[in-house]
Structure formats: structure tokens, C-alpha cells
Amino acid sequence: MAKVIVYPPTSMILSDLVERMGHQALVVPSEVRSRVTAPGIDSPPLNMTPEEPKKGLRYAAVDVPSGVRGRMSLIGPLIEQADAGIISIESGCLTGCSGCARTNELVRLLIKTKGIPVLEVNYPKDEVEARAFVRQIKSFLEGLK
Amino acid sequence: MKITKYVITSPESDILPSDIAMKIYGSKYDVNVKETCFGVIINGDEEVIKPLVEEIRALDPSGIFIKERGFPPGDPRRCRGRRGGGARPGYYMIESEAKLLPLISKALAYQAEGEATASEAETKPAKKLLDTKKLEEIIIDEFS
Predict the structure, then answer these.
(1) Selection from B87, B31, B36 nearest residue B55 by Cα
(2) ipTM
(3) Is the pLDDT of residue B61 over 70?
(4) Structural domain count, chain A
(5) Containing domain of residue A110, as a range?
């Protein structure tokens, strides 16, 4: 079973396809869960604290906006764990933790430069494209250990 | 550890969110269920949720999609009832991807159908070619 990071990191379709093929999808909600359900000083625990932009310095410089660094503190550790990646180029609607274009550029760059197998796909617009989309993802995931 | 998952049905699926909820109520699993317009949210122990999710998926393998959720169901930080209405922040992504679900589920069904046909063809014995001597006999019988 390989750990596969999907972009957008909140994608239902990509993460579902990865899990269907028996791999583990690395997605932001699991990272958020570990923060909001862990007991801490904050009550209720927060998914984003002033500490997160500091942790994000591992991935982005200090002059980069704190929003980017905060988001990277969530997504960066996922990229580090990844054995493979699936990137959807035209992702449509992106909100919340994946709603920042600069963070998304950085995430795509880090996935591509990590040296792991990466599949780039486009969300389908018709049935023919949908069949090709599923077939491409399936054959990519079958090739992973 | 408790985890939360969305079970989302494709708009063209014959399975309704209430069918999934009823299946969970009737199961042996001890989980919290919240029915929504697009599916259900289930919350429970990780060891319980994983087999349950597979059972739910078996209701319609190509029409049911599973997604992780960070916050537990009804969490005051996300629940719109406590935030004065409006959609929950992550809903827009689900709404956007839900439009594609009929296409994806058709493609998954097509893929599964193709695999079934291929495995059927593999198990079926290959047709033997007609022996030339046999063919000669048939011709002689036919025209004599």
C-alpha cells in the first residue's frame, strides 16, 4: 500500500479513487482532524494557531504571507510522507485550505520536484474523458507497490 | 481514535442517503450517523468505520463515494446551526465535485463491466479450429 498525495488536497473524487484501489490517500481533513480533536490549551482546539505559520517556514520563506505558511504547515507534512502523487490540473472550485492560488502553486511544485511518480490529469467533461480519467488513475495506481 | 467520513451518493445513484442511514441503524456497528442532502456523515472508531464503509460501498460500488472529514458531525465550529446559517466552508468543494459524480460513476461501472467480461473470456475455453479432415467429411456428406 502506497501513500498517495492528491491535489487538490481536499478532493473527494481523487481520494476516493485512491482508496478504492487499496492505497492510502493523503488528504488535508485527516491532518485537520489530528489538530481539532487533540486536547490542548485551546478550548476547543483550533486547526490553525499562531504556531502554524512558524512551522510553515520549513516550506516557504519568512516574507511569504502567513496564510501560505499556515496552509503549508498542514499540507507540507503530507507531501513529505507521499510515495506518489495525483494532480488535477483544472481543479474547479477551491475553497478553505486549498483556496489560495500561491499555496497551490507551491504544493504542485513540491510534489513535482520531490522525485516521486506523479500523474497529472484533468477533471473530465464528458463520458469519454471520464473513462480515460478513471483508466489512467487505475493503471497509475496499479503500478505502485 | 475516532474518525469521521462523508458517504456521498452520486445524483444518479438509486441509493438514497436514507437507505444508507437505515443500513447503518440496522447494522451491528456503534457509530454516530448524520443524514444530509448529499449523503451521510459517519463518526466512530477507526476499526469500526473502515469495515462499515466497505459494506456501505457494496450497496452501489460505482455510485457511492467516500471522503475524509476533519471535524466531527455537529461540531459547533463548523455546524451552520451554531454559526448563523450559510453553507459549511467545505461544502462548496463537495458541491463542485458532485456535478462530476454521474460521469465518474458511469466510468467506474464501465470499467467494472469490462473487467467482468475480460475475466469471463479468460475462463471460457478457446474455440478449437475445425480439423481439415473433418471439414472434408462434411463437404463430402453435404454434396454426395
Answers:
(1) B31
(2) 0.88
(3) yes
(4) 1
(5) 3-142
